[in-house]
Amino acid sequence: MTSPRSFSLAVRTESDVGAAIGVARRFGTALGFSDVAVNCIATVAAELANNLWMHADNGGRIRIAWVDVPHSGIEISAIDDGPGIGDIELAMTEGYSTTGTLGCGLSGVRRLIDTFDIVSRKGGSTFIVARKWLTGGYRCRTHSEPWR
Ligand SMILES: Nc1ncnc2c1ncn2[C@@H]1O[C@H](COP(=O)(O)OP(=O)(O)OP(=O)(O)O)[C@@H](O)[C@H]1O
Ligand SMILES: [Mg+2]
Prior knowledge:
Elements (H helix, E strand, L loop, with lengths): L5 E6 L2 H18 L3 H21 L4 E8 L5 E8 L7 H4 L13 H8 L2 E6 L5 E8 L15
Antiparallel strand pairs: 1-2, 2-3, 3-5, 4-5
Helix pairs in contact: 1-2, 2-4
């Protein structure tokens, strides 16, 4: 049996956040990331999943995937159906939170990974894609897959 190249799960509850962290950790380990890097990957999954649970009206989905373009690595993405983010720069500012928490989630994710993209608008969906590349000669092979 081969390992899946991607896995997606719904995040609506705190226990779903834990499940997303577990999947991210397993993918990161299977790909050959170092223990330190796996912890970064797990933290990214935790923050993105936590935001789905805390800020998205109906939760959302986390997807973890192996990627090989333009480099080998892991992709952690999050999508939801609103309420969206009106001011992305502000939301990315360390210490900014609309729920009275630390406001370090998005800014922390940005620091932990190699590429970070966010698409959102007030009243619409939020879509975030974070990627971390393998180093040290490790390679993985995968193929594009539709969002599941
Ligand atoms: N998926 C989302 N949908 C709508 N708003 C979001 C979403 N993710 C983040 N935000 C907004 O961006 C702000 C900053 O997010 P960030 O994760 O940095 O901090 P936080 O979740 O408020 O606190 P922390 O993550 O430190 O517990 C949030 O307070 C919220 O207003
Ligand atoms: Mg957060």
